[in-house]
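hey m, so remember when u said the tokens were messed up on ur end? i reran from scratch. heres the input so u can diff it against urs
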Amino acid sequence: MTTAAPTPSQQQQLAPLSAQTSLKRSRILFDTSSSSSINNTNTTAQTTTTTPLAAATQAFVPPLFDSQLHQQTIKRKIRLQYPSEYSKLAFQAEENEVDAEGGEKQQRKETATARAVREIRKEALDRLRSGEDYVEAGGDTSDVVGAEGRLVIHREVDMKSSVMRNNHGDVGLGGALIVSGSNNTTAFSGPNSTTTTEQQQQKGQPIRSGGILVKRDDDSNTTIPTPKWHAPWKLSTVLSSHLGWVRSVAFDPHNTMFATGGNDRVIKIFDLAKACVASPDALKITLTGHISPVRGLAFSERHPYLFSAGEDKLVKCWDLETNQVIRHYHGHLSGVFALKLHPTLDLLVTGGRDAVARVWDMRTKHQVHCLTGHDNTVGALLTKGTDPQIVTGSYDSTIKLWDLAAGKCMTTLTHHKKSVRALAMPSYENTFISGAADSLKKWVGSDGRFVKSFTGHKGVINAMAVNDDGVLLSGADDGSMNFWDYNTGHCFQQSMTVAQPGSLDAENGIFAAEFDLTGTRLITCEADKTIKIWKEDEHASELTHPIDMKNWRKKCIAEAKKRY
């Protein structure tokens, strides 16, 4: 005997009945508050008022009759659902007693799951009030009790497409049950749902209180790194010695003196200790010999030599014992904009306007390699003791990593959209950072893998420097200076340099910057013909200059949606 298929109208009538039957069956299976729930199925289904919270918690875990084991199971599932946010949870208090008609208070009937979740909430609330979890997350204990947020309880896979009805007749489609702690609002949230308190009031829906775990408002799975606190930097000394823009700076290996070169075509060597206190005899010697601005300087770690490069296409080696030029390196076809020494080999690397980087033997003056491949000026260089041993940044907005033994390019990085004018590398890890007018980008030093972007510095980045404490400086041509935490990319200070009296506001640019070997002094070479020495504010502390975690969290969530 064959049975006729139901018509579309019959299917529409059977759909809600099937959903109600499924919900009745789930209440029978998951209700552990009564031992006679199976025998009194019809009575229980009619008289028991199942709230959305109870229905979600019943669907969250199966019932267990061992209360301690049940509580541990729920806690484990919560940790699995929210692995990175568990330490940041704030908790909402809930009344366990309701007023009866006669004025007396009676205990609310609750399932084993709701009771276990309430105990977990109470335990975690005590921990948060004591400041244990919140301080570990980098917050302030004063904000714990007044924290606002919400919790999202994701239902089981087989419940995502089902229709959930409560005793008020509200319908919640597949998604999650959201319990808000700030406005006592409970709502169902799906992929396209944006139910709020005002929308519920406009629709005439009742606003119900209650809930369990309350998560902070940053509704994201993004891991927020905790930045290290750094003291702000302030101006200490201003040296006015050059007669033109100061374009380059270098420290000697013993950290006793530093050299600067500028558009006045001279190189000046200062005593660091005397310069930090603005002593009149801080200038030790002035070297003349270039006929164009001096764009690059470097001290040798194994020899008493100072190397200089200028826009006159000349690369010179100065003997600091006699203060005379002892070698010239000829080969560049145009101005030389960058100069670096190899940390372990007697090699000299220069880059310039002829779009090539040349590797020189320091002793024989012979050119070892001519690294070709860039389409524009090579404006920044890095040298390392491990492969790739040479990194070049060019005005064609690319960065190239070179194999020094073969003299060939290993990798080309094309992430920047503007000219790469600065490169910096810390001494404690194999990474480096590049600076351009669009952003700063951090890379893995071994293979050039992209790590993250440091955004927020608007300007043409001419100089960058990083010390051993993880403080990164980026200086721009408009005089803006940003101080970053190198490990996380958090900008903890934004400041503007001040042009010396008598200079134009347009001469407020930074061309070069370098930390001394201790990392406690910073020297910037600027367009107002001055050399400025900066130091940390010794009176600053984490209380006077706290980390702005709120804006940092927002920035991390916004940048997580971008690719680069």
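this time it looks ok to me. The chain has a mean pLDDT of 77. if urs says something different then somethings off w ur setup not the seq
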